[in-house]
Request: fold
Amino acid sequence: MCAQINKEYNISLVLRALEKVKGISPKGEVFFSHDLYSRSFQEYIAILLSTIDFSRQIPDIVRKSIITGAIVHAGKNILSQETFLAEIEKLESNYLKKAPKKYILVTDMSAIYSKLFQRRKIKNCDIVFKTQLSEQFKSERQKFLRWASHHITGQLPSDYLNIQISAFGRSPEEAGSKALDAINLLRAMWNLVYNLKKRKIFPTSKERPLNSIVLGPFHSIHDNDGKHIPSIWWRDTSYKEPLQCKDISKEEKALRESEQFITSKFAKLPSEIREFVEIALLRYVHALDEYNMEASFLKLWSLLEYLTHTLKDRYEVTVKRTAKLFHDYQFHMQILKHLQDRRNIIVHKSEYQNEIEIFTYQIKQYAERLLLFHLVQGNKFENLGGIIEYLDLSQDRTALIRKKRFIELKLKLRKH
Reply:
């Protein structure tokens, strides 16, 4: 798929505004000044990111550089929708033609080394766990962390388990994004084991993630020889302080079995549903990585909308489809309606909720139930449309039997 303009936007208005603040130097270089409202060039780039639908093969972090390059190149003439889109398509095509190259993402994780942490291959990425980084990576990583530490207020972790992830990409950004998805998918499988056991949340004076195994605050990308690639890095913006490293020795068997169970279920899912569940697992682990409980709650509500396929529907549909996974449908409707109200108060009234930990625990259970439903039962459906049809079926047994009778009659009449 080539890049296309999102029809919900009038991109010409944005380009026209940029044209007004555009300048060309004596050397023929395009530059942009602030507009009347002090909007910068980068603010316009951020707007344009929403207006273009790129090929799914291009990671978000690369899309910004393509848009920036397209504006600068198209700006040598009068900026228009046609010239801008032509430059976008050219840069996108050039990017997709690049030969993939091997890069190494280096990060760390809040866990004590055990036999479970053996080399893994997930989504074509090689994951290696290390108590100590190899010498060629160690000094480069330390230099990067000394610089990066100025971007956080808390202390850097000192005892987290080191991880090196090999991935191929047309750019270090693409390889790094693939590597992060691979390790986060693995963490989602492990954290699910711990999180399913959390039946009660006790209020604490400290904000900390619900996940037991989290990544460190910074992830760096390196060449195959260990050389750090400057200006490209990833950061956990919610990070506050290191967690106590998790000793998984007692749960090692359960974690391994969970990983094998999920992997085996993945293999049986139709491709569309498999990709959907992978994204859901990534959203799940990110939601519970948050140090701020309100942020975690809101991300879990967003995950609920995703798992009920109601991102563009009314909240009532989200509530109904979720509740239909339970026998006591009406009772769960009440809990979900209460969670919907809590969500609206947080978003629209900006009121802090004293019971936010309880609300987060409640919504977490529903998100996990839906996630497991798609994972375990997804192979019974041809596509996501089938799952939506199932979730929309009536909970009333009599109504279902009547509908079944009508369908059987219809099929019988079609034979004649």
Q: What stands out?
A: The chain has three domains: 4-97, 101-248, 293-400. The CA atoms of residues 101 and 168 lie 5 Å apart. The chain has 14 helices and ten strands.
